[in-house]
Design brief:
single chain, alpha/beta, 2-enoyl-CoA Hydratase, Chain A, domain 1, six-stranded mixed sheet, three-stranded mixed sheet, 7 helices, binds ligand L6W4SP4V
Length: 191
């Protein structure tokens, strides 16, 4: 699931909840769709932060669901809908943003990472290609050569490397959610 709360300063906070790594199960995807719609429709909300509970942003598609039929909202239109929100949306990346988790973050307008976070597209290690927009959004963001390296090796990179490559906008040693909230407040209302 995903919970919704409105913080002072008109920021909606969406928190992914699916232990142990907040993977994108059908319930989490439905929760994201519902809470993003809620933030979009709430006139008091001027910006949005997406984070994961217990200091983990998202480990990607829920591999526990791979064996069964796909239920719930698909990832691709869900991420498109986030990208299309006309209020700033930031991903607060703590712990991991892997596979579909990084693809979700790439659909957000900004990414703020904790210094100890790990990011990557490890799908190749499962015999897959990133299937939720990572093969398009990552090369647009950091260029084809660097994106191909990450997609074809599946390696995890540090927040510092992600900052250097241009995948994240800020890295912090303190609370990444607080930092992301402060960041979106500062850009709310800008075109
Ligand atoms: C996350 C880790 C780095 C953590 O490592 P650590 O050492 O700390 O701990 P463990 O490895 O022991 O893991 C702890 C615990 O967590 C479980 N777990 C980890 N990852 C997941 C996960 N992704 N899902 C579920 N559970 C997970 C793990 O099993 C342990 O559980 P336990 O009970 O044993 O304690 C490390 O775990 C790690 O590296 N994990 C793997 C991360 C990963 O590989 N992620 C990528 C997943 S694949 C993916 O995300 C694919 C995406 O690109 C989305 C694809 C979308 C598909 C869209 C399909 C469109 C099809 C369109 C078709 C159209 C057809 C038409 O209509 O034409």
């Amino acid at each position: 699931m995903a919970t919704y709360s409105r913080l002072p300063g008109s920021v909606a906070l969406i928190t992914l909840q699916n232990p142990p790594v907040n993977a994108l199960s059908a319930a989490v995807r439905q929760g994201i769709v519902d809470t993003v719609q809620r933030a979009l429709k709430d006139p008091k909300v001027t910006s949005v932060v997406i984070c994961g509970q217990n200091g983990k942003f998202c480990g990607g598609a829920d591999i526990r669901e791979f064996a069964g039929p796909m239920l719930g909202p698909p990832l691709v239109p869900m991420i498109h809908a986030i990208e299309a929100v006309d209020k700033p949306v930031a991903a607060a990346i703590e712990g991991v943003a892997l596979g579909g988790g990084l693809e979700l973050a790439l659909g957000c307008h900004y990414r703020i990472a904790h210094s100890k976070a790990l990011l990557g597209l490890p799908e190749v290690t499962l015999g897959l290609l990133p299937g939720a927009g990572g093969t398009q959004r990552l090369p647009r963001l950091i260029g084809l050569t660097a994106a191909l390296d990450l997609i074809t090796t599946g390696r995890h990179i540090s927040a510092a490397e992600a900052l250097k490559l241009g995948i994240v906008d800020q890295v912090t040693d303190s609370n990444a959610v607080d930092q992301a909230v402060e960041f979106v407040r500062s850009v709310a209302g800008r075109s």
